[in-house]
Design brief:
330 residues, alpha+beta, Heat Shock Protein 90, Ribosomal Protein S5, domain 2, 2 domains, 9-stranded mixed sheet, 5-stranded mixed sheet, 16 strands, globular
Length: 330
């Protein structure tokens, strides 16, 4: 019950401009929900940099350490401060948001990570010297010379140290580690010609959790081998290649026989233009395709990538870019 007199008006709240640190921490709440979110953003940045080898290391479920190392094109010393500025990106120029071909495009990931953790970026572009920059709790340090052969190393320590209340919402180290593995596996499915390694460095040890070497050959051969390594022989031996095209949409991947159905939708991996997504329309279409051969309590298994003109799908509808909207959903 409010005991205040209704005749006493409250003081008028004053409108204030938030500082850059507060803005970044608020934005980080949408972009970085958990350590796996950070891994996703950093690995996607590596893929956008044309990396062919990506190594992910974490400790304590990613709460104390997330490190992503790649052999991509790298950044110069002049690029590094811009990489930590909000809405600074090399992916788009802002003139056509309906023609997005890269994973990242908003320029939010690195500033958000630097706002809620201790972030250090070391990078070297071809023809330039290596350099590094660090930011902790949104406070930027000067660019310094560094030692690195090529590519980029992004190291995030003490995630959410600047917003400790967020730590209470994280799950156990084991659950967060599994979420990281799920993210890396999905991205590895989308990029069979890129090698991925995932290492758990908890307790000062180094344990390889996942290793997927770059595959060779035609797409279906490469993808088939990648899925065999990630999902096992059970899926690979019971899956059929899918390659269908209709009205400007092309669907490629592997779909398992009805006899390999699951009790839950745990082996449904859907991609749009190589981007892992959760889309009710695609999930419904997959379910409908098995309607006559599966009971309602069984779920099909499939790894499918739909490609189309970028203008026919909007990827800018979700903070984590996990959902898409088709412009002609019918």
């Amino acid at each position: 019950m409010n005991a205040k007199s209704p005749n006493i008006l409250p003081a008028r709240p004053q409108i204030r401009q938030l500082d850059e640190v507060a803005i970044n921490r608020i934005a980080a709440g949408e972009v970085v929900e958990r350590p796996a979110s950070a891994v996703k953003e950093l690995v996607e940045n590596a893929l956008d940099a044309c990396a062919r080898r990506i190594a992910v290391t974490y400790a304590d479920g990613g709460k104390t350490l997330v490190r992503v190392t790649d052999d991509g094109c790298g950044m110069t010393a002049d690029d590094l401060p811009l990489a930590l500025a909000r809405h600074a990106t090399s992916k788009i120029d802002g003139t056509d948001l309906l023609n997005i071909r890269s994973f990242g495009f908003r320029g939010e990931a690195l500033p958000s990570l630097g706002a809620v953790g201790r972030l250090r970026i070391t990078s070297r572009a071809k023809g330039f010297e290596a350099a590094e920059i660090a930011v902790a709790g949104g406070r930027l340090e000067p660019v310094r010379p560094a030692a690195l052969t090529a590519g980029t190393v992004v190291e995030l320590r003490d995630l959410f140290h600047a917003t400790p209340a967020r730590l209470k919402f994280l799950r156990s180290d084991r659950a967060e580690a599994q979420a990281i593995r799920d993210v890396v596996e999905r991205l590895a499915m989308a990029e069979p010609y890129v090698s991925f390694t995932l290492t758990d460095a908890s307790g000062g040890e180094s344990r390889t959790i996942l290793r997927a070497d770059a595959e060779q050959g035609e797409l279906f051969d490469a993808l088939g081998q990648r899925l065999r390594g990630l999902l096992g022989a059970g899926f690979a031996d019971n899956a059929l290649p899918i390659d269908a095209e209709r009205e400007g949409f092309r669907l490629r991947g592997f779909a398992a026989l009805p006899t390999y159905s699951r009790g839950a939708a745990v082996e449904q991996f859907l991609f749009v233009n190589g981007r892992p997504v959760r889309d009710k329309l695609l999930i419904g279409a997959l379910r409908a395709a098995y309607m006559d051969v599966l009971s309602r309590d069984r779920h099909p298994a499939a790894v499918l990538n739909m490609t189309c003109d970028t203008e026919r799908v909007d990827v800018n509808v979700h903070p984590a870019k996990a959902e898409v909207r088709f412009r002609e959903p019918g």
